[in-house]
Each structure stands twice: as structure tokens, then as C-alpha cells.
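Support request from a user on the community tier.

User writes: "When I paste my C-alpha cells into the form, the page sometimes reloads and wipes my input. The last time it worked, I copied everything first. Here is what I submitted, just in case something in the input itself triggers the reload:"
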């Protein structure tokens, strides 16, 4: 497997991710502190307070990973992460928005301090994956962007996602994570077993990546090949929210945030049913 080129290969990715996190966390803390009803329904069975508490757990996880401390035992699948997230939420009784905002702010400062001193080529992450430190930072950025979106949508507030932040989250976090995990990890195996397709993903403002689905596995490669079923040009924020199941494909297509063409572009709709992000 040829690993897709990503921002995590660039020497300044950590600096970019840290700067992005400082920007996003400032807005995130303000958003969480302003939550009027901690019990307001957000995503799935979670309340907005549950989402904020989960975000604090994500900061703890990624800080521990960068610091070389043990991380939870977990399989990075929908079911595996649901189990570990439920356990962490059950063990954490804090649901006061102001207290959670303070916790996230303190954890963000701790993460930034650990990240500033990180010199390892790679660190242990969940399910034995080895990630370069910038990929861990970009994963945390993705968590902040997505769950900030969840809280804002539930409480009727705005949550603009800047393109360069989303690009860092996808190219610097999501794609390296896919490459580091087993090729079966992020797929619904019942639906993926009969699916074969190759897509040329073109992130606007970024690079190109080959996504190859083959009977229950997903691997990434260098983009630019002509031997694909379809080409997908995507705004990074729209793609991130689409892949994580926060929006359907219709609105970004109509709004010009996504464009697809090629021999078999209809396979993109099937791809969305096959993906099973944690």
C-alpha cells in the first residue's frame, strides 16, 4: 500500500495544527460556556453536555498519546469506540457547561505544551496504531471541529469551519489515521463485503488521494491515476461532515461544495453506506 501524501508529511504541520487548535478551542470554550441547557439533545443519544465531556476525553487521550502515556484499550470501529466512549462518560459525572468549558481550556493548554516538546517520529495511539505527532494534533482538531458543529447545531448557534482548518483535519488527521489502522477498521463489513471501487479524491486547497475499496477493505494511495470509477472534488469541511455522517450528500452537491464525475460516479452513494466512522 502506498500511503497518501498528507499535510502530516510537512515539517510545519504541527505548528499549523497547534495554531488551528488555539483558534478553534477559543471559540469552542466560548460555545460550551454559553450552552443554555446542558440536557439539550445533540447527536445520537448524547446531550450537548455529553458531547462536551466527550471532547474533554479526546483531549486527554491525545495528550496522553503524545506524552507516551498509556491510552485506553479500544478497537477503532463504530462499536468499539461506542463502548469506550460510553464507559468514559459513565465514569465522568461532570455535566456543567461552565465546568466543562474550564476543563477543555485547561486540557488544551496541556496538549499544546506537550505538543510543543514532542520530538518522537511516531507515538502509540488506539488499537496499536502508530501515528506521527502532527497526525494526533490534527485528529484532535477534527474532534473539535465536528463536535463544535454538534453543539452549535443543537443550541441554534453558528459554527463556521474555516477551510484551512478542515483541510488540516482531513489531510493531516483523517487520512493518516486510515492508513495507520487495519484496512477493515472504518467500514461496515456487512455492506462492504461486496463493494469494489476506486475514487480519486481531490480536496480543494489540498492534494489528491486514491481511495480503494476492495471487498471489505479500504486503502489509500497517491492520487492522479486515471484508473478510477469516479473523481470527487470536495470542500474539506463539507467532506468531513459528510464522511462523519453529519450531513447528507444532497446539500453539498447542490451548493457546489462537492462535484463528482467519471465512469461510475453513482458508486459514491454506495461508498457512503459502506463507511462506518467511529
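"...and here is what came back when it finally went through:"
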Amino acid at each position: 500500500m502506498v500511503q497518501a501524501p498528507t499535510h502530516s508529511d510537512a515539517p510545519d504541520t504541527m505548528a499549523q495544527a497547534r495554531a488551528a487548535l488555539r483558534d478553534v478551542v477559543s471559540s469552542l470554550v466560548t460555545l460550551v460556556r454559553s450552552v443554555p441547557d446542558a440536557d439539550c439533545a445533540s447527536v445520537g443519544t448524547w446531550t450537548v453536555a455529553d458531547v462536551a465531556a466527550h471532547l474533554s476525553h479526546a483531549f486527554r487521550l491525545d495528550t496522553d498519546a503524545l506524552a507516551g502515556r498509556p491510552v485506553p484499550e479500544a478497537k477503532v470501529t463504530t462499536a468499539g469506540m461506542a463502548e469506550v466512549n460510553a464507559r468514559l462518560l459513565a465514569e465522568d459525572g461532570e455535566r456543567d457547561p461552565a465546568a466543562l468549558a474550564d476543563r477543555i481550556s485547561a486540557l488544551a493548554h496541556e496538549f499544546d505544551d506537550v505538543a510543543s516538546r514532542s520530538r518522537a517520529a511516531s507515538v502509540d495511539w488506539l488499537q496499536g496504531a502508530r501515528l506521527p505527532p502532527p497526525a494526533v494534533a490534527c485528529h484532535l482538531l477534527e474532534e473539535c471541529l465536528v463536535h463544535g458543529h454538534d453543539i452549535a447545531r443543537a443550541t441554534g448557534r453558528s459554527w463556521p469551519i474555516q477551510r484551512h482548518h478542515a483541510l488540516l483535519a482531513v489531510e493531516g488527521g483523517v487520512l493518516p489515521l486510515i492508513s495507520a489502522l487495519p484496512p477493515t477498521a472504518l467500514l461496515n463489513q456487512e455492506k462492504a463485503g461486496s463493494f469494489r471501487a476506486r475514487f480519486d479524491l481531490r480536496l480543494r486547497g489540498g492534494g489528491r488521494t486514491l481511495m480503494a475499496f476492495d471487498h471489505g477493505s479500504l486503502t489509500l494511495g497517491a492520487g492522479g491515476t486515471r484508473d478510477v470509477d469516479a473523481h470527487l472534488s470536495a470542500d474539506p469541511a463539507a467532506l468531513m461532515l459528510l464522511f462523519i455522517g453529519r450531513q447528507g450528500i444532497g446539500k453539498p452537491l447542490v451548493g457546489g461544495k462537492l462535484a463528482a464525475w467519471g465512469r461510475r460516479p453513482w458508486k459514491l452513494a454506495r461508498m457512503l453506506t459502506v463507511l462506518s466512522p467511529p
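Agent notes: The reload is a front-end session timeout and is unrelated to the input. The first strand starts at residue 123 and ends at 124. The chain has a mean pLDDT of 94. Escalated to web team.
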